[in-house]
Amino acid sequence: MNHIERAMASLGDEEVDRLTSYPIACGVNRKLLNGGKGVTYAEWCRDPKLFAESFVAGHKYFDFDFAIGLMDLSVLAGDLGANVRMDDENTPFVDKHIIHSPEDYEKLEVPDIKKGRSNVIIEGTRIFSEKLAGEVITAGFLEGPLLALTQTAGAERVFMDMFTDPSVVHKGLEVMVEFDRQMVEAFGETGCNGLVWDYLWANYSCLGDSEYNEFEGQSKYAGMLNKLTSDCGMAFCIHNCSDLPHLDTQVNDFKPVIYSMAYYPLIPDSPSAGEVIDQGYADNCLMAGNIDPQMFIRATPEKISKVTDDLCQEVKTALCKRGLKSRYCISSGCEVPPDIATKLENIKAVVDVTKEKGKVEC
Amino acid sequence: MKVSQIAGFLGSGKTTALMKIAEGLVNKGCRIAIVVNDVGEISIDSKFVEANGLEAREIAGGCICCQIAGSFAETLVKLHEVFDPQIVIVEPSGVAIPWGLKRAAEYSEAKAEMVIEHAPVITLVDATRIDMLLKAVRRLVETQIREADVCFVNKVDAATPEAVAKTEEFIASINPRAEIAHLSSVTGEGLDLVYEVIVDRISPRYDDAVEEELLRKQYSRRE
């Protein structure tokens, strides 16, 4: 099977030659550019051509089954005016927020998405989607409204304001939703096959069901954005690397076609891959996970190969027990660290072991 | 290099306590670095740093451990290279999860010749605002208490005895294995215990704890 045949079969839970594989390798692909000398993160995330070329290079080098254009989680906040610290070799992040009082929420305005890094990620996604068309399933990546607001305002502030002054938080979220709406329509024009939403705060360590529903959930902002994603012709997908994700809301109510998640062995009730499948979340959705991202830096290739083999066995056993054929993608629980110390051979090992050990035979 | 986390929600008195603790440890002859959350409660005064022979670094208020792991690890490497502190006291954001920061600290071992060990995780809970915190951000406060090795009921000088008792009761209900003590940056109550926790005690490494837990689960599945 080629990548697209395998991915499409897995989405429909049909028989496959092996499980799909996609360690979420994004920023780390920049190390493959410039004849293997790499480019800095700062160069990579400001230039749509470099951004796109890295995904093409990553696909060729690692032989992934998907390509997902994650840049970082400060793209929208930066364009809204928050200061983004841009180190050469680390993920950029917001180091100065722009909300310091309840009144500041009302000053937020949607920026021009044809400028700034919003434009870089859209144009970059357009370029790699064109170049990889027919070879692999491609997707854009977008921060959900609550994530974009917490990146802009500071998470502690937003969580406290949800209680003390919820109306201003909603005003801020309305701006983020409009920003996201424009971004979805723009992604819809790029030719990418899907759009991956980062709805990080659907996390029981932070918010309960009612708070999540009030500030992002199905009946509020996310419901509209999820439908818009499909209406714009893209497969609706979610990535959530939180420790205790709201699986019932995000998988059963939102109904994404792909759901990517992490696993935290030290957190009681953090669901493992087998448990996720046992509990029925893969019945109608391609679940993806959950190799610890730190292994891509610190493990030996032998160690990460063993971990991948164990994950394949766990997933195959659970799929067979549940009567499923292929609805799990062997992936990382969060982005492969785009760190200079990340070992490319470890990324390759995950893909290669999945090729060797990922055949489901019930 | 030992990493000591002092966790707590915004307004819990973390930065004030951190400065007191750092000053006290320097006076005891320890070489201390501090890594503060630059969108936290108050800025660390550079004169304070100079006067106490500390090395300070800031990390963004990034609460998302996957995203800040690289920069945090690099901060530790730079501290190691230029200052070689015995202990790095870290003030994470109030929405950071302590084990996530442990994991990020251990990243630094891939970047330099250094071995990370951890002091027990300290969580400060503000007794003067306990009712409000439980209404507003209960889950976040619960998460930080659950992850703590030692919980300090903070601002005991300003809180009523009822509020202190309620805070203790809440901590015990969430994390029965955590040691509970009182702290006041104003009167100095509890500081000696903080010094002892940071200097003399050890908390498990993330790597080791994960291996142990995975093995436990593997064997329990077989049974």
Task: Explain this structure.
The complex is a heterodimer of chains A (362) and B (223). Chain A is of the alpha/beta class and 362 residues long. Chain A has a single domain (3-357), classed as TIM Barrel (Alpha-Beta Barrel). Chain A is 46% helix and 13% strand. Chain A contains 16 helices and ten strands. In chain A, a hairpin with a 7-residue loop joins strand 3 and strand 4. Chain A is globular. By secondary structure, chain B is of the alpha/beta class. Chain B has a single domain (2-210), classed as P-loop containing nucleotide triphosphate hydrolases (Rossmann fold, 3-Layer(aba) Sandwich), CATH 3.40.50. Chain B is built from nine helices and eight strands. In chain B, strand 7, helix 7 (161-174) and strand 8 (179-183) form a beta-alpha-beta unit. In chain B, helix 3 (65-82) packs across helix 4. The longest helix of chain B is centred in the first third of the chain and has 18 residues, at 65-82. The termini of chain B are far apart. In chain B, 52% of the residues are buried.
Poorly predicted spans of chain B: none
Termini distance of chain B? 39 Å
Structural class of chain A: alpha/beta
Q: Which strand-content bin applies to the residues of chain B?
A: 15-25%
Alpha carbon gyration radius of chain B: 17 Å
Helix/strand layout:
The complex is a heterodimer of chains A (362) and B (223).
Chain A: H1 3-11, E1 20-22, H2 41-44, H3 48-62, E2 66-69, H4 75-80, E3 83-85, E4 93-96, H5 102-106, H6 116-131, E5 137-143, H7 145-153, H8 155-164, H9 166-188, E6 194-198, H10 209-215, H11 221-231, E7 235-240, H12 247-253, E8 258-261, H13 273-278, E9 286-291, H14 295-298, H15 301-322, E10 328-332, H16 344-357
Parallel strand pairs in A: 1-10, 2-5, 5-6, 6-7, 7-8, 8-9, 9-10
Antiparallel strand pairs in A: 3-4
Helix pairs in contact in A: 3-6, 7-8, 7-9, 8-9, 9-11, 15-16
Chain B: E1 2-7, H1 14-27, E2 32-37, H2 46-52, E3 55-59, H3 65-82, E4 87-90, H4 98-107, E5 117-118, E6 122-126, H5 130-136, H6 138-146, E7 150-154, H7 161-174, E8 179-183, H8 191-200, H9 206-222
Parallel strand pairs in B: 1-4, 1-5, 1-6, 2-3, 2-4, 6-7, 7-8
Helix pairs in contact in B: 3-4
